[in-house]
Amino acid sequence: MENNELKHNTESMQTANQPGIYKLIIFGVIVCMIGTYARFAFDSWMLSLVSWIILFIGAIIAIKGVFKILDA
Predict the structure, then answer these.
(1) Which of 2, 11, 28, 47 would you call most buried, defined as having the most Cβ atoms within 10 angstroms of its Cβ?
(2) Confidence band for 1, pLDDT divided at 50, 70 and 90
(3) What are the UniProt keywords, alphabetically (predicted)?
């Protein structure tokens, strides 16, 4: 019979499955949601600009987590 060991125990899979990476992605998504809400909740151009900045910061945080998984 073949050796049916799981190949999910490799070092890269263990690194990619760290809970900290997924917490980073969730944090980025929450920041994006706050930025999106702020874009539509206020009618000032200054608050709209700040909400766009918050939205892009959240997107960068989430993308950073995804690249950590891909780097593993």
Answers:
(1) 28
(2) very low
(3) Membrane, Transmembrane, Transmembrane helix
Is residue 65's pLDDT more than 50?
A: yes
Cβ-Cβ contacts under 8 Å for 12 (sequence gap 6 or more) = 72
Helices 19-41 and 45-71: angle between axes, nearest 10 degrees: 160
| Extents of the domains making up the chain | 19-70
Q: Look up residue 8 and give its DSSP letter.
A: G
The DSSP element (H or E) to which 52 belongs, if any, is helix 45-71
From 67, 57, 64, select the one nearest 30 (Cα to Cα): 57
How far is it, in rounded angstroms, from Cα 6 to Cα 13? 11
